[in-house]
Every structure is written in structure tokens, then in C-alpha cells.
Amino acid sequence: MASLSTFSTTVPLRVAARPQTYLFLAVRTYSGVAASTINSSCLARHHASPLTNTPKRLISSTPQPQIKEFFPPPANPAVKEVASAWSHPIYTEAQMNNVRVAHREATDWSDWVALGTVRFFRWGMDWVTGYKHPQPGQEISKKFKMTEQKWLTRFIFLESVAGVPGMVGGMLRHLRSLRRMKRDNGWIETLLEEAFNERMHLLTFLKLAEPGWFMRLMVLGAQGVFFNGFFLSYLISPRICHRFVGYLEEEAVLTYTRAIKELEDGHLPEWESLKAPEIAVNYWQMPEDQRTMKDLLLYIRADEAKHREVNHTLSNLDQAADPNPYQTEYQDLSKDHPTKGIDNLKATGWERKDIF
Ligand SMILES: [Fe+2]
Ligand SMILES: [Fe+2]
């Protein structure tokens, strides 16, 4: 069944030249992704929302506007589904709840280059979007309060960027293998799978909100700059680039942990009864009792923790000679080895420092 209702909201974006001014970026949010993904009480709340921009009369002679599917399934009647090459490993609830915000200490100058770049990007993103996280015990001002729509806008932008590094790394290693006529030792698959996984995060959020033209322009600009920057950087030092992605994923785990905490604390009421879209249920193979918005955020956070582990690990390796430990079959199965499943930092020899 088609989507049932929409509402619009605005998200502040700070203009560089005028520090206290905000651009307002329209994001249309689907409050009823599909009849099966939202319950009636939640729907009723959305109908009552002052943000609703379309008339919501229960009895009307005027046809209600229908939302078109943002990316509908193939229209060809002969096609039932388009299968993916990568099936997602199963995460248990306990494993996902065990994911922690963690940091790998920078140990040399190249780590500091990677960490410094990530910190600069984080600061820039927070500054441009007017984002502030309250310190423990501090009450955040209304201007900086995160709503469901602000979170979705942030997720969509960040996921559109997060899908770039794996594709660039995979592409360059593929070309290198062709050029040098040498095996790649299994890195390409993991990097392309990471890019695919990030794109699935993006597609999932796009079932919950549709970005406006300004947001699309921002994504276009960010992709143009980031793709080329990462491409050149990866040619110079793939090791620093994987470290950079490892630190970037530390930030992603932090971001999703904060969103989950806000949801648990009751600050995001519209998400409390919202169900995960069908695309997510199928991709993560979510059990029937684990299909809420909170579950979705737990799944995505666990993926980001996996990217954190994988990229920090790849950065520790000899980029030209070492096989990818995530694609390797080991002789001694009695030892702990890296796997494709939930993050397992112990197996990689990276002692994590939990932050909270
Ligand atoms: Fe992601
Ligand atoms: Fe990620």
C-alpha cells in the first residue's frame, strides 16, 4: 500500500559568512512509510501535527495527495525482486546492545593526520548545521534540540558521504590488480561490501524522509569534493586513508549512540512506535520482534562499529602484501580470528578504549 501521509519541517543550516544566520533546508518526512510499518496511534499523532502541510480531513470530496515511492520497485511485471550479491550477517540483540563508543589511540604522526582530519570534518559539520551536544547534566537550548527530522537529515547527508571511501578503495585496488597483473588478496570484496552497506543505510533512511533540492545540492557538492579528495589521498597513502575511515566510523558510532539515547529518553516521540521500513527488515533479516526504529538504529550502529574495526585493522596491515583477514580461511580454527559478523576488536589485536 502506498504511503499515507507526509509532513514538512525545516532544518537550520548556518551560513558561513553570517555566523548567527541559518538557511532553512526543507525535508519532507514520510510519517507513514507503508501501512504495515506504522501503527494507527502514531499515524493519528502525525495527522494532528502542526507541521502537517497538507489538509488532513477525515471525510473529504477532494482526493488526498498520494506520495510517490521515492525509489519504487521495478515496474516490469516479470521481475519479482532484484537480488543482492551480499547478504548481511545476522546480529543478535545482545551483540548490538554490547556495541560501545570506543577510540583507538593515535600512536604516530600518520594517525594524527587521520584523526586531525576527522576532527576538523566533525567540527565543520557541527558548525555548519548548528549542531551542539549537551555536556552531561547540561540542558541544551531549544535552538540546538534535535528532532526526528533533524536526525534524519543528518543521517542522510552522512550516509551519502560514508558510501564513498569503500568504493574508491575497492576501485583503486581493482585497477592496481589489473595494472600490475597481481592478485589483490581479498581486499576489494570487503571494501565494496562496505560501500554497499553504507548505501543500504542511505536507502533505508530515504524510506523515512525525502530530501529537498537544497539537500540534494549539498550531497552533490560533498560527493564531488570528497570523492576526488579521497581518491587522491588513497593514491598517496591507503594506510592513512583506512585509519581516517576508522576514526570517521568512531564518530558514526557516537552519533548513532546519541540518537538511540535520545530515543530511549523519550525525546523523539514520533519514533517510539515507528517500525523499520521493509527494505531494512529484508536486508538485516530482522526478527519479527526486533523491527522498531530503535532496533533499526541498533543495527546501523553495529554496522558502523564493524566498519570501525575493519578499517583500523586494514590500516595496521601491509597494504601491498597482506591478505584481507576478513576474507581469509585460517588453518588453526581454535584461535580467535577476524570475522564478518559483529565487531570483535579482540580478534584484531586492537585494544579498544571504551568511552561509555
Ligand atoms: Fe552508515
Ligand atoms: Fe560506516
Layout of helices and strands:
Elements: E1 6-15, E2 18-30, H1 40-48, H2 93-97, E3 102-103, H3 109-129, H4 148-162, H5 164-180, H6 187-205, E4 209-211, H7 213-236, H8 238-264, H9 278-284, H10 293-316, E5 353-354
Helix pairs in contact: 3-8, 4-6, 4-7, 5-6, 5-7, 7-8, 8-10
The chain binds fe (ii) ion (2 copies).
Residues 162, 198, 249, 252, 304, 307 line the site of one fe (ii) ion.
Quick structural gist:
The chain is built from ten helices and five strands. The chain has helices at 40-48, 93-97, 109-129, 148-162, 164-180, 187-205, 213-236, 238-264, 278-284, 293-316, and strands spanning 6-15, 18-30, 102-103, 209-211, 353-354. Residues 162, 198, 249, 252, 304, 307 line the site of one fe (ii) ion (FE2).
Strand percentage = 5-15%
Q: Categorize the overall geometry.
A: globular
Number of strands: 5
Instruction: Output the helix-strand order.
Output: EEHHEHHHHEHHHHE
Largest sheet: 3 strands, antiparallel
**Average predicted local confidence, pLDDT:** 81
CA radius of gyration is 21 Å
Q: Span from first to last CA?
A: 42 Å
How would you name the oligomeric state of the polypeptide chains in this document?
single chain
Bound molecules: fe (ii) ion
Q: Strand pairing plus helix content: what structural class?
A: mainly alpha
Number of helices: 10
Low-confidence stretches: 1-26, 32-67
Query: How much helical structure, as a percent, in the residues?
Result: 40-55%
Q: What's the arrangement of strands in the largest beta sheet?
A: 1-2-4
